[in-house]
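tool=predict chain=A
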Amino acid sequence: MINREIIRIKIVQLTYAYYQNGNKNIDTAEKELFFSLSKAYDLYNYLLALIVSITKEARKHLELAQARAKREGTQLPSQKFAYNRFALQLEENKMLNDFMETQKKTWDNDVEFIKKLYKQITDSQIYNDYMASTEDSYAADRELWRKIYRTLIQENEELDALLEEQSLYWNDDKEIVDTFVLKTIKRFDEKNGAKQELLPEYDNEEDRDYARKLFRATIMNADEYQRYMSEASHNWDFNRLAYMDIVIMQIALAEIMTFPTIPISVTINEFVDIAKLYSTPRSGGYINGMLDAIARHLINTGRLMKHMNEPKNLKEKTPEANADAKAGEPATPGGNEPEAEPENEN
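tool=predict ok
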């Protein structure tokens, strides 16, 4: 589940914090990096468990409604939502139950939130359409929860506030983790029963090694990378850049120099996107131009054995020219198409 997009964002956050912290211990900082990554996986499981808790709340309401119907001699209420087949399969999932038991995590302390969310669901048009539909299939049950998640859980300010109270990491993680929860819902197959596999914490050890190598290269070679910035920028005034921009470029250079199989265009695009989220409105344009110029300078001086396509006008764009471009423009080095297919981020 933890892919390179999450890793890059975490390294930006942790590198910035590393320089703001007076006690600069790289081993301690690395442990913090991996702890923060593990918290993202905790959130993934916790959000899946939210579906289970809502379903249990539905069964409580169903039992009360059934008892009332028997007393009054009226028609028994539908069990369709309370015994939704996808939700029941998730409730029985071995991986989720093992994780929640190990981490001692539960939604039991948030009863009022669960009740409120359950009411929001049962008041929704999505729920009413589902209950009125004559379709009775596992696929329909699974699709219901995909729709509920996208409309009532993915963008839920009260849930965001609740999660932030539990972990400082989760506020930044939720947007990305939501995509993995939705992917998991879509992948569930009824025939797998309780043995349905959830996403693993890491797809492979390569991503864990990538995180370690990128973070260490960023910190240990900081002076070298900042010298590259100075050489390539000529008379560029670093005072024009936010401190976060320097950090982001330093990490991008660490990736460019440390990982020969990652195309330069992929690195620049990824870190320009991060800059748009975590720095100033103009940072995307500055960083795009600066990294393009630095990478070309390193290639031309023989210090970087990677390939970059020539700019369309056959003239290397200067950082000053790129910096004046709109920050929202595509971040392809030199304005060209990427020289290779992007790496597989998942």
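Residues 314-346 have pLDDT under 50 and may be disordered. The two ends are 7 Å apart (CA to CA).
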